[in-house]
Amino acid sequence: MEALRGSRPRPQIEIEPTRAPQRLAPFAYALEAAVVEDDEDLADGRLVLLHDPDGHDAWRGTFRLVTLVRAELEPEMAADPLLPEVCWSWLTGALQARGLSYGEPSGTVTRAGSHYFGGLSERPAASQIEIRASWTPREGRGGVPDTGAHLASWCDLLAQVAGLPPAGPGDASVVTLPQRRDPQAR
Fold first, then answer.
1. Which InterPro entries match (predicted)?
2. Higher-confidence residue: 98 or 181?
């Protein structure tokens, strides 16, 4: 938990602790984050670290990371049939780019579209992508995973979904979603 609390992500990512779910594991710690640029929310998410000292068969370990990441999209982008596979590869790619060892990844990528009617009919149609995932971070020295590095890879995923350029110079291997046309002001 100390590694999660002491993390310093890129300036556009605002992180704060939040209430963790109580029934998933004996111990849990949760963070919420938003990607904010020019006072506009571009993406947001939640990361939960679970720990069961007795282990969990489905996790194949004693720790589990669970996440939700979401962002609004241009409708044309949301219609791309490859979007779910690309978004899932962003998650696994963010973990691999930092050299993290993990197992048992699972999750969903969901596209949603909203059309407004009646008193809301003046709002333009909106599309959203949502990544829900979990994975087992491999334990390192002392039986504890490098949660700080996992948090950093999660922040990389958030930035990528938000459409921010890569933080590191010369990283042309990263393809990000373009920023949405009219982000909501905070």
1. DUF3000 (IPR021555)
2. 98
